[in-house]
């Protein structure tokens, strides 16, 4: 099973994790990491690299972050570089939303042999497909 690590501004990772649990129950090979405003980035990156190693069963790890260019993503990228140099396959995807996470968890459960690149692609599709403009007519219908 591909490992999942969610890294986000506190308390978003925990909250999104509750959304996953609400729909699918407890999940194996899933780590949720909230990054506090006062967090030491070097220590957080080391912990995250250890998390990646812990959930990698040999199929790789998808690391999901909330905002491109923000501290949680920067920490995740550093951790992935370290994990990759230690022999772990990992991919970082930013812009995480609940539809993306639900797609990822569903795909992991339904297709356990899916490779990391394909799971990342399906995550992107789930994130995009989950953003929808809902139109209302002037009379409320």
From TrEMBL:
Keyword list, A-Z: Transferase
One annotated Gene Ontology cellular component of this protein: membrane
Residue ranges of domain PTS EIIA type-4 in the record: 1-131
A molecular function (GO) term: transferase activity
Alphabetized InterPro entries for the sequence: Bacterial_PTS_sugar_comp, PTS_EIIA_man-typ, PTS_EIIA_man-typ_sf
Keyword Transferase set for record: yes
One GO BP annotation of this record: phosphoenolpyruvate-dependent sugar phosphotransferase system
Keyword Nucleotide-binding applies: no
One Pfam family here: EIIA-man
PANTHER family with a match to the protein in the record: PTS PERMEASE-RELATED-RELATED, PTS SYSTEM MANNOSE-SPECIFIC EIIAB COMPONENT-RELATED
UniProt protein name: PTS mannose transporter subunit IIA
């Amino acid at each position: 099973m591909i490992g999942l690590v969610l890294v986000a501004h506190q308390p978003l990772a925990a909250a999104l994790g509750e959304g996953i649990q609400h729909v699918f129950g407890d999940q194996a090979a899933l780590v949720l990491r909230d990054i506090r405003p006062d967090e030491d980035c070097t220590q957080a990156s080391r912990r995250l690299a250890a998390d990646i190693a812990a959930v990698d069963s040999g199929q790789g790890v998808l690391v999901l972050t909330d905002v491109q260019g923000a501290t949680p993503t920067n920490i995740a990228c550093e951790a992935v570089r370290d994990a990759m140099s230690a022999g772990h396959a990992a991919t970082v995807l930013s812009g995480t939303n609940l539809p993306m996470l639900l797609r990822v968890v569903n795909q992991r459960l339904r297709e356990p042999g899916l490779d990391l690149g394909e799971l990342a692609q399906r995550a992107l599709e789930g994130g995009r497909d989950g953003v929808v403009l809902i139109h209302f007519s002037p009379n409320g219908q």
